């Protein structure tokens, strides 16, 4: 099945990257390569687009889509937390723009057969990079009840974590939980009917998010990446990050705040001892959100938040 176009906030991302012909920019999350396709045209004829995705399907698709610009594009099947190593191997000391459009793509949700969706009956896998070993099947069928509770609570902010974990452990003794739909039925059975009826989202949404985050180690990777951002950008270089839930957005917001504040010494000290100086400034005080029209035409955009910051 072909790739579907999934770019969220495309105009905003293009505008706020501040791209010029000749710039070097990095799309850390190629996905359907919608952002990358617009980006490359803004930096022609002599710019360079570095594209990364941990999903081999995304790299294959981007290779085809960006073929007309192949001399100006370098693609890497890698995790974006590897960007410092990738740039240094290319001899690049800084870039003009970096884009992250976090989470999973429409293609992964609908066509990957890896169990990202509770609406499709697929093997419980959820790896974005199938070279990794840990799968959702392994977590669901072998982690202890308390480990499952922690994952659902920490990464899904699921208030019925304990009940759901208990039910999973009861059911998996009878038979291993192999598919996304089997898991979703167990979750639905564990959540009190009254609470489920009151929620705007499907009862499985938070647990599926939590498992995906745990399988792909998403938050640690993002945190490591954010710590490196100022050292990857050239002066006035821009970072654009689109996040889709509060756990991601918090990591981005807190990292940017640290870079903006600089000094981390207690206010009671008469003078700075840490030596940290401000390295980035946010372009907007608040995150930007998609327009009403965009949310109407693409409901996946509804929880998106775009933060833009500039290296100083
Ligand atoms: C929301 S989609 C990106 C959509 C894309 N911007 C577009 O225009 O079509 C997110 C993509 O990022 C990839 N991804 C998520 N976390 C990643 C990470 N830590 N390193 C590399 N790729 C990642 C996923 O595999 C997925 O393909």
Task: Note the main attributes of this structure.
312 residues; 14 helices; Rossmann fold; alpha/beta; 14% strand
Could you please describe the fold and organization of this structure?
The chain has 312 residues and is an alpha/beta fold. The protein has two domains: 10-107 and 218-311, Rossmann fold; 126-216, Putative methyltransferase TM0872, insert domain (DNA polymerase, domain 1), CATH 1.10.150.170. 45% of the residues lie in helices and 14% in strands. The chain is built from 14 helices and seven strands. It has helices at 10-17, 34-43, 56-65, 83-90, 106-111, 136-142, 145-156, 161-174, 180-190, 193-198, 205-216, 218-232, 246-261, 292-297; strands at 24-27, 48-53, 73-77, 95-101, 233-243, 280-282, 305-311. A seven-stranded mixed sheet has the order 3-2-1-4-5-7-6, with helices on both faces. α7 packs across α11 (205-216) and α8 (161-174) crosses α9. The longest helix is centred in the last third of the chain and has 16 residues, at 246-261. It starts with 9 loop residues before the first helix and ends with a strand. The mean pLDDT is 96. The chain binds S-adenosylmethionine (SAM). S-adenosylmethionine (SAM) binds next to α2 and β2.
């Amino acid at each position: 099945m072909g790739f579907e176009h999934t770019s969220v906030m495309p105009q905003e991302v293009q505008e706020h990257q501040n791209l010029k012909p000749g710039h070097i920019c990095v799309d850390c999350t190629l996905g359907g390569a919608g952002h990358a396709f617009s980006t490359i045209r803004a930096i022609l004829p002599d710019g360079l687009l570095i594209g990364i995705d941990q999903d081999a399907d995304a790299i294959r698709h981007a290779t085809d889509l960006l073929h007309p610009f192949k001399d100006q594009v370098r693609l890497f099947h890698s995790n974006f937390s590897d960007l410092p190593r990738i740039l240094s191997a290319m001899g690049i000391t800084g870039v003009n723009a970096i884009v992250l459009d976090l989470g999973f793509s429409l293609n992964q949700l609908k066509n990957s057969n890896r169990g990202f969706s509770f609406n499709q009956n697929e093997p419980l896998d959820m790896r974005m990079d199938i070279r990794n070993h840990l799968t959702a099947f392994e977590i669901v069928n072998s982690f202890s009840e308390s480990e499952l509770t922690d994952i659902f609570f920490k990464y899904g902010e699921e208030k019925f974590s304990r009940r759901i974990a208990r039910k999973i452990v009861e059911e998996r003794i009878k038979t291993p939980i192999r598919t996304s739909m089997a898991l979703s039925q167990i979750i639905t059975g564990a959540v009190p009917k009254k609470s489920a009826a009151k929620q705007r989202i499907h009862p499985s949404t938070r647990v599926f998010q939590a498992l995906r985050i745990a399988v792909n180690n998403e938050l640690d990777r993002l945190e490591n990446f954010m710590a490196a951002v100022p050292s990857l950008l050239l002066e006035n270089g821009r970072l654009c990050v689109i996040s889709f839930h509060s756990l991601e957005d918090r990591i981005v917001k807190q990292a940017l705040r640290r870079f903006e504040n600089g000094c981390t010494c207690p206010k009671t000290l008469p003078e700075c001892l840490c030596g940290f100086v401000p390295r980035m400034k946010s372009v907007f005080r608040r995150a930007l959100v998609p327009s009403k029209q965009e949310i109407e035409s693409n409901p996946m955009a509804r929880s998106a938040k775009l933060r833009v910051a500039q290296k100083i």
